């Protein structure tokens, strides 16, 4: 194998093992054994487990962000954007299950970074819509975090259940989000304050 081929092999093995076992439970010995190489080969290419993990996470984040960017690039009504965003994540969960597991497993920082990045990409779209409807566009950051977080959390749940079907899950997510967004109070207040 060339050095580039070996590196790609190690990334593929790392993706699979990190998805199955998580970062903490994965050892450099296991990674090397699964790739049928010696430990020094893993160190040579990545400096260790952390370096390999970082490459795997970066690639997965890029994969899912590309899906979201493509889904949102077409524009359209707010409901159409929500539908495409929900389906983009559920498609990723279904088609790149190992990648989603890597991002959502016991990996401090990476999953929250992913959610934050997705929310930032959605924020400008919401901000434009908020301005058009007389809402404070600065609040788009809060709502984009809530919406993306909701879809991502449901994606984690759906990964394990796969029921109901993807289209129904997406439709229900969009219905909940869209119903809430369409009835936003421009100046909400708590109705029952704590004592």
UniProtKB/TrEMBL annotation:
<feature type="domain" description="HTH tetR-type">
    <location>
        <begin position="4"/>
        <end position="64"/>
    </location>
</feature>
<dbReference type="Pfam" id="PF21943">
    <property type="entry name" value="TetR_C_46"/>
</dbReference>
<dbReference type="InterPro" id="IPR036271">
    <property type="entry name" value="Tet_transcr_reg_TetR-rel_C_sf"/>
</dbReference>
<dbReference type="InterPro" id="IPR054129">
    <property type="entry name" value="DesT_TetR_C"/>
</dbReference>
<dbReference type="GO" id="GO:0045892">
    <property type="term" value="P:negative regulation of DNA-templated transcription"/>
</dbReference>
<dbReference type="InterPro" id="IPR050109">
    <property type="entry name" value="HTH-type_TetR-like_transc_reg"/>
</dbReference>
<keyword id="KW-0238">DNA-binding</keyword>
<dbReference type="InterPro" id="IPR001647">
    <property type="entry name" value="HTH_TetR"/>
</dbReference>
<keyword id="KW-0804">Transcription</keyword>
<dbReference type="GO" id="GO:0003700">
    <property type="term" value="F:DNA-binding transcription factor activity"/>
</dbReference>
<dbReference type="Pfam" id="PF00440">
    <property type="entry name" value="TetR_N"/>
</dbReference>
<dbReference type="InterPro" id="IPR009057">
    <property type="entry name" value="Homeodomain-like_sf"/>
</dbReference>
<keyword id="KW-0805">Transcription regulation</keyword>
<dbReference type="GO" id="GO:0000976">
    <property type="term" value="F:transcription cis-regulatory region binding"/>
</dbReference>
<feature type="DNA-binding region" description="H-T-H motif">
    <location>
        <begin position="27"/>
        <end position="46"/>
    </location>
</feature>
<protein>
    <submittedName>
        <fullName>Transcriptional regulator, TetR family</fullName>
    </submittedName>
</protein>
<dbReference type="InterPro" id="IPR023772">
    <property type="entry name" value="DNA-bd_HTH_TetR-type_CS"/>
</dbReference>
